[in-house]
Specification:
Layout (H helix, E strand, L loop, with lengths): L3 E3 L13 H7 L5 H12 L4 E3 L9 H12 L3 H18 L1 H6 L17 H14 L2 H12 L9 H7 L25 H15 L7 H7 L21 H9 L12 H17 L1
Helix pairs in contact: 2-3, 4-6, 6-7, 6-9
Amino acid sequence: MGVFNISPIDKGGKLYAPSAIVARTIGPKMSPISFALLHLWKSSGMHTASVGFARPSDLDEVMDAARIYARGDFSDLYDAEKRLEAVKVEKLGSEWAEKGLLNLPDCYHECTELTLLGHVLWCHNVISAFGMYSFAKARYEWIEKCKWDKKKSFQENAKAMSAGNIGRSYIPGKDYSEALANHYDPDLADKKLQECHNWLKKDCVYTEKELQERGWNVAYDMATWHEYPDTNRITIPGVILQNVTGGLLGIGGGPSDEVTAHAVELRSSLQKSL
């Protein structure tokens, strides 16, 4: 049976904007994107990866990975995997690296109040070991959106969760001792949960200088620069609203083609001056 991996480049670490530690550890012989694809094809045994792209050149690293796979020489892949594993053990400690995410209840255990304990600790791991702050912040934002109604029972709240986004973020002040009872080091796990929440909560913002000082900076960012990012976003509700109101509401509006062209020209001039 084949395994189809959806969005390994984005959900697998925002590898179009990798952390400096990840890029440096993987090394100069392949990019983080090429590494990730080779890892899932060769080491993880998956047969297909879906990759989004905004321009043809975004597929260059995908094709590099495909060429390496076709040649059948995976020595650089294996070397990079060993370096990443060594960094993980060095930064997290061998015992935590081995046991830190084990014996944790999932969010459907009542003692968690729907908290994704393993996910929060995993976010702490990728930041602490690999400096992947931007990626972890994006993942944590999703679970911060999970709703909890104090008037409803645990079962009712669990049932109301979105199937596509289950689990809550860390709950400040909650006693997690029962949920962490089977962990090899409950006190350390609880400390890391609190610390991760303080790093990633929505009102916590670090400057570029602060991220650099902590080793959480991004090596580079290959995301496209849009003059008006959401100009062309079309949604079904927007289309319906436009038709119902005769075009008064819903999709439409935004900058004209002339204004957009002028913005492109300004951007080009700025890039040439840098």
